[in-house]
Design goal:
eight-stranded antiparallel sheet, alpha+beta
Length: 142
């Protein structure tokens, strides 16, 4: 396992877009979900639907961890934080929908081919933004 310096950890996190998000169930056990994420404006941003377990878990207990691995699996980073949830996207082009579009484009590395269709889908799917500032990170080199 390669340990990362704090600066390398920041770059490692920014260069990747897939990880495992851990939230806490009501009984305290972990709920793990594969997610696509983007690091935007110093926050980890994830698209979630309003009716998923991870969304309910964060609404009850905002503590989260994101586990991100290298392509060869042996270098990894765990980032902890306290998540916030945006309102559900309720009108195409609202602030939540636009944030979701920006997240999609950051993950894909390109503009969405049909933003209007995407924004409509965000309303239909009752999507919202889960975001958190990266806090404690491990493992790091001293």
């Amino acid at each position: 396992m390669a340990l990362l310096s704090p600066a390398e950890a920041d770059l490692f996190l920014a260069q990747r877009h897939f990880g495992v998000l851990t939230t806490l169930k009501a009984d305290g056990r972990p709920q793990l979900s594969n997610v696509a994420y983007a690091l935007r404006d110093g926050r980890i941003v994830v698209s979630v639907t309003d009716d998923r377990a991870k969304t309910a878990n964060v609404a009850r207990d905002p503590r989260v961890s994101l586990h991100v691995t290298s392509e060869d699996f042996w270098t990894y980073l765990v980032v902890e934080g306290e998540a916030e949830l945006s309102p559900v996207s309720s009108t195409p082009g609202d602030a939540t929908g636009l944030a979701l579009l920006a997240t999609y484009e950051a993950v894909r590395g390109e503009a969405h081919p049909d933003p209007a269709e995407f924004l409509d889908a965000m309303v239909a799917e009752r999507r919202r933004v889960l975001s958190f500032a990266p806090g404690y990170r491990y493992p790091l080199a001293s």
